[in-house]
Amino acid sequence: MATRYMRAVHYRDCVFQDVYYACVNAYQGQIYDRCEFHGSGAPTALILAQASEGWVIARSCVFDGTGVSTTAIRVNAWCHGVIAENCTFYDFSGAAIDCETQLVVHNCIFKDCGYAFDVASPLTAAYVESDYNCFHGCTHIATVNGSDYTTLASWQALVDADSASPDANSLTDDPLLTDAANDDFSLMATSPCRYTGRGSGAVT
Q1: pTM of the prediction?
Q2: What are phi and psi of 121, to 5 degrees?
């Protein structure tokens, strides 16, 4: 475990290598900007919020599960939720994001994960805002309250507490990462994720 804080933490431009846990139980929230996380080979979550009352926010981060780490971000019902924007989640054996509360995900790539999302509550009782993402090579898009949604179409057919459906503008094409196996997560020039994200000219 890299850190265990009782207050809010904010990391910028950090690399967490061979991580067991990057941060645990920062009660006022955790923010990560332009960080990289590389799993240790242990079946763990790279970021864990078990008793945090704030948000876990990840922006322009890379999460590399190395094929063994179970989860990138895991939060329980004490946490307000997860916000992930412009992130890449690669090679997790379980759910990239395991969230019991609110989930906001835009412009993210989920490549070779067991699940992109594990949502504990029925979607009709949850707040899920997810769109302009890319899901490729994932065994399932999501599991919701114990039910698996293997295809993007089945996930899009659900309706959340705001009567909205998730990921209406998302893709299942290969994102064409340059060389993810050797930690180059940049997009090739022909990647379908270029200039297709949420926002003006956003590059996922």
Answers
A1: 0.91
A2: -95, 155
Would you say the C-alpha torsion 40, 43, 49, 55 has a positive or negative sign? positive
Let me know: does 71 contact 48? Beta carbons within 8 Å.
no
CA 98 to chain centre: 8
pLDDT digits (tens, 9 = 90+) for 61-101: 999 988 777 899 988 877 888 999 999 999 999 999 998 88
CB 108 within 8 A of CB 131: no
The answer for residues whose C-beta is within 8 angstroms of residue 153's C-beta and 6 or more apart is none
What are the structure tokens assigned to 126, written together?
């949850």
CB 160 within 8 A of CB 127: yes
C-alpha 24/C-alpha 49 separation (Å) is 6
Measured CA to CA in angstroms, residue 155 lies from 35, 114, 147, 162, 201 at distances of 29, 15, 11, 16, 26
